[in-house]
Amino acid sequence: MSAVEARLADLGLTLPEVVPPLAAYQPAVRSGEYVYTAGQLPMVDGQLPVTGKVGAEVTAEEAKGLARTCALNALAAVKSVAGDLDRIARVVKVTGFVASAADFTGQPGVLNGASELLGEVLGDKGVHARSAVGVAVLPLDAPVEVEILVELLP
Questions:
Q1: CB–CB of 142/41 below 8 Å?
Q2: CA 75, 36, 145, 108: dihedral to nearest 10 degrees?
Q3: CA distance 95 to 115
Q4: Is pTM, for the whole model, over 0.85?
Q5: CA quadruple 39, 41, 44, 47: dihedral sign
Q6: pLDDT at 30
Q7: Pairing of strands 34-37, 28-31
Q8: β-strand partners of 135
């Protein structure tokens, strides 16, 4: 077990299987020393635990937890092409999308779920730049979607 996966276990988490693509793309692609993940939905055992817009059917706190799940799924996608999460030099960028009710403006707080997980698991290597974007709708009516860009050790 890698040190990163041991840290996940200490947090009571298990790295999930890679979420299969919903369309014509790969969950993650490596280019040189970088791994780009596709947008990861908060799938758990092949299902979305909740659907709808944040600020309407989904609370900001629920969405923050879903963003955490997205980040965990993104780490699984990184491992699928890097082979070992201990090869992560740093998380460079996190981009998150929040399906938002018209008056919802708390996207940064929702995406803190992903950012905080990456920090808990990777320490200083998890510190990253980030964008938090409100959108009208996401695939499968998911409330949150997260993608990450990771630099690997040479």
A1: yes
A2: 90
A3: 10
A4: yes
A5: negative
A6: 98
A7: antiparallel
A8: 99
